[in-house]
Design goal:
By secondary structure, the protein is α+β, with helices and mostly antiparallel strands. The chain is built from four helices and three strands. This is protein-serine/threonine phosphatase.
Length: 153
């Protein structure tokens, strides 16, 4: 990761790329945090250091493991394989699509919850003025197995 100091003063950017997110070899968390205000650099760094851990707890504890993985995190092969039987393909495709929608809805809610918790925590932090300072956060979680499934669908 690289950032270059501009001419405006303190660099308020922070970023993270966390491979093997939550101990899963197929998962990467990425985040870019653009601080603003007098303490924007502190807010951006605090969010960078804390938000991924909150997401780990929420995503994998509140909602369980990904619907296409075994308990050890390995990918279920049948979910990635082409269907040998054309008649079974339609009903299985619909079921998988519903599973994906449920999973993405739970992921979306986990992100929202983590951001709300992070916001509350920042307000309680004595050394950071989060009233006049803040950060824009752009985050994502990439799971290889879901990308393969979405490409196939």
């Amino acid at each position: 990761l690289f950032t270059r100091q501009g001419k405006k003063g303190t660099n308020q950017d922070a970023m993270v790329a966390w491979e093997n997110f939550n101990g899963r070899s197929d998962t990467v968390f990425c985040g870019v945090f653009d601080g603003h205000g007098p303490h924007g650099h502190l807010v951006a760094r605090k969010v960078r250091d804390t938000l991924p851990l909150k997401l780990c707890d929420l995503i994998y504890c509140d909602y369980g493991e990904s619907p296409t993985s075994n308990s050890d995190g390995s990918v279920l092969e049948e979910s990635l394989s082409p269907y040998p039987d054309a008649e079974d393909k339609s009903s299985t495709f619909t079921a998988q699509k519903e599973e994906h929608l449920e999973f993405f809805d739970s992921m979306k809610e986990s992100f929202r919850k983590a951001f709300r918790v992070m916001d509350k925590e920042l307000k309680l932090h004595r050394n950071i003025d989060s009233i006049c300072s803040g950060t824009t956060a752009v985050t994502l979680i990439k799971q290889v197995q879901w990308n393969l499934l979405l490409e196939w669908l």
